[in-house]
Amino acid sequence: MTTRTTVITGSASGMGAANRRRLEAEGHRVIGVDVHDAEVVADLSTADGRRDAIAAVTELAGGSIDGLVTWAGLAGLTGRPGRLLAAVNYFGTVELMEGLRPLLAAGDQPAAVAISSNSTTIQPGVPMDLVDALLAGDEEAALAEADLGDSFAAYPASKLAVARWCRRAAVTDEWAGAGIRLNAIAPGAVETPLLAASRADETVGSFIDQLPIPAGGPASPEDIVGVVSFLLGPDARFLVGSFVVVDGGSDALIRPDGMPVPFVL
Ligand code: NAD
Q1: b/e map of 218-251 (b: 16 or more CB within 10 Å)?
Q2: What is the pTM of this model?
Q3: Which of 13, 33, 95 to mutate to test the pocket of ligand 1 (most atoms within 8 A of CB)?
């Protein structure tokens, strides 16, 4: 069997690092992208950093890749500007997806997984103007919109925009039509440095461990990355544009009838 090549953004920490370990154990060649400790060191908060990351991955890949998982992301924290989350979580996902799509198109049974979050459905008051501005694609305008709120509001907005972008793109000629499966996962609370920073935050820290998790939790990164292996692999051949909630039951507990949403004409 030929070695599969999978690109992971945010590969240096948390779930990205666990995903790297898992995929390497499964025999993948992993090309990591992160601000440190990665094959491709790049800052995905800027257009230049994304362009450099795409160029460097293209150089290393040698013509094709088989998988892409976009873990790179930031949580809302006190004093952290909303625009930084819009830039990394949304544009750092979408531009890497679009920029590396030609390499995926040349790959073997290619698949991509974007990282959303269950904050999209369980955090009240998601600023929908920011979701719309992100999806409109004008980065300067979207970052200005993100500055109208704080990074706690920008977080679920950036992750909802990622989920919507995935569902819109997944079914197009460029993705499903080119044989590339694109899906998104929505983790709940997962024990990583990101969650530890949220727990230490002066504004939201005391709420972090109050989230009800029927399965018990938080999850470990290993609880989540097996789902990504499934989504990248042949058993998920018919999954396209899915939004896979992996949250130990928090969303089902809080909003039992929130999904699925029926089609009302
Ligand atoms: P983490 O902080 O452990 O890892 C995130 C990685 O992204 C780090 O290695 C970091 O260096 C990288 N990164 C951040 N900014 C970057 C930039 N500008 N350019 C390149 N790389 C950058 O966090 P994690 O918890 O493993 O989170 C991974 C993803 O999962 C994130 O998108 C996060 O929003 C999402 N998520 C996390 C949780 C959770 O509870 N931990 C829940 C739902 C979704």
Answers
A1: bbebebbbebbbebbeeebeebbbbbbbbbbebb
A2: 0.98
A3: 13
